[in-house]
Amino acid sequence: MEILWFLIAMGLLAAVVVPYVRRRRGGIRLVAPGSPYAADPAAYGFARQEELDVRLPGPDQDLLDVLDLVQRTQDWRAASQLLAGTEKEGEVRWQRVQAFAGAASLELQERPPHQGGEGHEGRVDLRKGQHEGPYEEPRAEAAAGRPAGGAWLRAWRSEAPEDPGCAAVYAEFLVQQAWRSSSSGTDEFRIILEEARTVCGEAALAAPGDPVPYIIELAVARGLGYSHEQFDQLWANVIDRAPAHMGAHLAALHYWCEKWHGSRQEAERFATAAAARAPQGSLLAALPLFALFEHLPEVNLVRGFYEGETVTKAVEGALYAVHAARPDDPMLAHVRHLLVLFLVRSERWAEAMNQIVRVDGHVGALPWTHDGDPAAEYAVYRALAVAGYEANGGSPATLPQ
């Protein structure tokens, strides 16, 4: 047993402090930022770390413009109009619903309301669109014209309860609040997700052809522990409406993972089956790479793991999907971001740089969002890719754009 713990400790030590990443042709020495010997990502025109947008995996200027307007004016109507004009069956609607819900959830976390009266705290129950108990805006926020976080979503829910876009955003908001503010398995966690399930039903009734309410419920199913039979029934509602929806498949994949209600084998089976039946040009061919990512070992003690057959096969499948996909596919950035991690760990520097040059500027995607600071995590991998690329003869002049 002592030998096992020693090996684990040595693996952790190697992952943290070993200063070299080996390559057949030379090595890469990790040096302090600002060192004259450091490879400079800015030489490639990449965004500075503090400029990286953590909200989205890739550009959606219409969404960002509307989100800025809604947060600045606290008027929800622009969000409603944007969602009403977004195709129901496509990936964009799902991403925009997530973005609006995430913005409200983060606002509430950053600017929680407080009940009037010294020594007493309250909260706004955004889930029901009303105040819980006597409530006053904090004087400092009121004086500055800054309402408590998520006020625009509360108003949207109150003033347009039949709006299908509002119901979808509200349901997703509840899901994000459950995961963000509660511990899995607690009474509060279950109560919030039960309410999210109810709102998903409202959203589905308001927009019968829209797969988004059912995609949101996939996360509810994971949190509440739906049986496999219940989950299969829910999944049938999704694929009846959008059979090749990449975002839906990613959400379902989480359920089948070992850490939730499936196993490594079940997750791989789900991903492989989806990839096999994917239509030409679909990014579903990259799904096995996401299944592999969800089951990576905490500590890798296998030399050459990332050059092995399993990883190589999944990476090649994802690269094929990227090359075959439409350039405007809204899920393309998701696949490219995950490829960056695997290509860097596989020391395939030029291929990693080829992905980075196409996604740089936005980091709101796996694998970076697993970290508390997505921009910092992405910046580390980008710096490694640049250093490896240059150590093997690359330069800004040789990088294809």
Explain what the structure shows.
The protein has 401 residues and is an all-alpha fold. Helices cover 57% and strands 3% of the residues. The chain has helices at residues 2-17, 61-73, 77-84, 91-110, 139-143, 151-159, 164-181, 187-206, 212-224, 228-241, 246-256, 264-276, 287-294, 309-324, 332-345, 349-359, 374-391; strands spanning 20-22, 27-29, 123-125, 130-132. The strands form two sheets. The protein has a two-stranded antiparallel ribbon. Strands 3-4 form a two-stranded antiparallel sheet. A hairpin with a 4-residue loop joins strand 1 (20-22) and strand 2. Helix 2 packs antiparallel against helix 3 (77-84), helix 7 packs parallel to helix 9 and helix 11 (246-256) packs parallel to helix 13. The longest helix has 20 residues, at 91-110. The radius of gyration is 23 Å and the shape is globular.
